[in-house]
Design a protein that fits this description.
By secondary structure, this protein is an alpha+beta fold. It has 3 domains: about 150 residues, no CATH class; about 180 residues, no CATH class; about 70 residues, no CATH class. Helix content is about 35%, strand content about 15%. Strand 5 and strand 6 form a beta hairpin. Helix 6 packs across helix 15. The protein is globular and about 75 Å long. The termini are far apart.
Amino acid sequence: MSFNIEHSESELSSGGTFCNPAFTITATDKSYKWVEKIFSGYTLTSNRSDFRTSRYNALCSILVAINMGEDRIFYVAHNKNAYTVNEWPIKYKPMMDVLKWLEDEEWIIRYKQGYIDEDFFDGTSEFVRTQSRTDRYYAPQGSPLISYEKVAATKLYYRKPEVLIKFPNSKGDLNKAPVDIEFMSIPKNKKFIEKYLKPKVVELNEYASLHSYKDGEGRNLDIHWTRIFKGSWGVNGYGRIYSTYQSVYKGEDRLNFIIDNEPIVEIDVHASALHIFSMYPNSEVSFDLPDVDDFYDLIDYTNKNRKLTKQVINAGLNGANILGRRFPVSIREHEDPDVRALIEGVKWKDVKAAIFNTYPKLKLAKEMGIAGYIQFRDSDVIMKTMLKLFEHGIGCLSVHDCIMVPQSHEAEAEKIFSDVFKKDIGIKPRLHKSYP
């Protein structure tokens, strides 16, 4: 097959779509005949059925990525270790084989991100990379890989690894941050992960498989936790556990979950981060929490808003700068407009002064990098609590610093949670409960 292909640099307008090596297009999918026609041009060098299947699925994954964005730009993991660490269902060699074939056909074009720096005095020029990211590919105009209808594909079933280490400088949602492949591929690190970090998460996932989980519409929830660290493991390494339901279902939707055919109760620690910060193992940092029911409502300022107070304190304990002249960026530019609206009619200097007057040690949070420590400790508490609940035959779920259990086990779960928190953190928690 030959195609008239044209392309220009003006097409290269974005960072592109990551090609997740985890798709196939089956005979029942609308795009099947189109993909089969393209794949018929690939020369198979082995008669093994798995050889053909893996290359076919690699092509399917690339087609999904190309047609996901309007600019047809995508990128692929070129590091062989990435396929091992992430346990993707399509392996490194098939992906590279198909990429090379598509490049040779000029159906995709590979390019580096950057610009030409010209020196007008000596007439020289050099290419300057503007991104440290991997090279991008794009399907130029006329490429048979471009579909003008939505590509119908099936995602191959696979589990995320039980433990992932993300880059030390990862920003935002750690669950979406890139994996530090090189760090995880070092033999001594692989051995440590397998021996000390992975077993507890495996145990949680095995226990979870013995229970029934549904959403409010009666759909089964696929429960599989991954523990995610930042930079390394240890008491400053974050280390919270994540599962798909945490990102798919928000707030009230999670309250409608059904565990073992029962409605749930959600139990969380009121101001968990503040609890943990107050017990930091350093006398210059630790402090006594006031004897009140609500640590946020205690803080007073003009046009006071408890939700705003909570947002600011938690932002500071999650690494945001609350010593500056403006509300933290994480609040000013929050994705939820209701959160952004909280600062209207409120002076930052009043909020900051009131918070530091009540909790002066919060001034130390930013320079201490306390966020990793707090998340590691609350994750340890949650995992220990869940393992104890499972050992007592109680199905459960978690979201960061809260647990969900069937309502018939509310009292038992509350006691176990409180006991574990007090033993690990050193203070009895104020627990809060929510119902559907």
